[in-house]
Prior knowledge:
binds cobalt (II) ion
Amino acid sequence: MNNFPWTKTSWRSFPVRQQPVWPDAPLRDETLTSLSQLPPLVFAGESRTLREQLALAAEGKAFVLQCGDCSEEFSRCTGPHIRDLLKVILQMSVVLAYAGEKRVIKIARIAGQYAKPRSSDTEMVNGVELPSYRGDMVNSPEPTAEARNPDPRRMLEGYFRAAATLNLVRAFTWGGYAALDHVQAWHRQSLDLLPASDKYEELARQIRKTISFMTAIGLDTGNPQLRQTTLYTSHEALLLEYEEALCRQDSLTGEWYDCSAHMLWIGERTRQMNSAHLEFIRGVRNPVGVKIGPNHDVDDVKRLVCTLNPANEPGRLTLITRFGAGKIAAALPTLVRELGREGFKIVWICDPMHGNTYQNDYGQKSRNFDDILGEIRDFYGIHRAEGGIAGGVHLELTGENVTECTGGSRQLLDHHLHLNYQSTCDPRLNAEQGVELAFELAGLLHP
Ligand code: PEP
Ligand code: CO
């Protein structure tokens, strides 16, 4: 796999999984040509800056907060949805920065998280076999044959919705919405919603005191450091034709970047050695991630690390482990030890969502807050014990008040989930659960 030079199309000679079969090939080709001529969504220099920031996380000097929808939906490409996600990410990052005393690198699953891997190509709905829903960039979730038919024009629509989303994210993060004084105001409200506990009370008291102090000395006026922030974008590089069409050669360095997002990752289902997905992302210079599940082979992971980061550059490669609360203790220690022994520079982050999904008695997919927290706790504990560096978390989360994950301060139970279950894919933490998790995480950063 390494012996041939990489090009943006070299993945086409490797076995590829999880791609739709577009019924209209000429329309697909026309769409891909249009995409390849459109402007990049991000600038290569931004991805380089993210890589530098991630290098700090590899050394334990920064915390990675990567989160957002499991699957973005075209119909939710709205101002309020984007604002609410940004708001909860900012709130969580303030808690982590205050209490964890670390720089927080904010990366959202946003502006392109439109394609989903599926465990089966088809599904049975009311006795009828239908093609699986593969994300809004491919088909539509309604259970009819017509809606499930892959339509390549959806890739173009995805691009334009990603551009609109990114435009608002840039406006909010640079235009004053993320100013610390606003974040402080949200905080005053949400701190009052948290459950009464000595731990929270003490942390909340400290944050309030810091806020008052900053306000008293006039720090909340004008200073761009306090009024602006950066939210990086990321998504799973799943639909390789789309990713290829968004590849651009950087005019400053001559290197190739996938300009559909700042960071891309490949998933547990597509990361095999010699796969098209691995071949594609090895050649783009963005920071890249790989999901690692409980059934990995350690030698395979070593080969994967060498393929993706031959120069052992810190910040280039993030491993996102997603084992499940019951499996992490058996799986993670060896991996950390073995990769540590090789001297690999890796950003380790914990996805406590995908190994903790269960189906409840009502047929809904859910995850329990305590399992999520339990996996993160073990992740930190194991890294400490094995001499690794825990670099952050990767969460499925929304800023809305959904009821998709059980537990948390409201003690949601399975029979409450129907109240506001909206996800068409995996269950997400809601805003309150997200902030609560940030407080718990802050405690882990400073045990
Ligand atoms: C996801 O992140 O939504 C996903 C499908 O993850 P994984 O590849 O880890 O299953
Ligand atoms: Co998911």
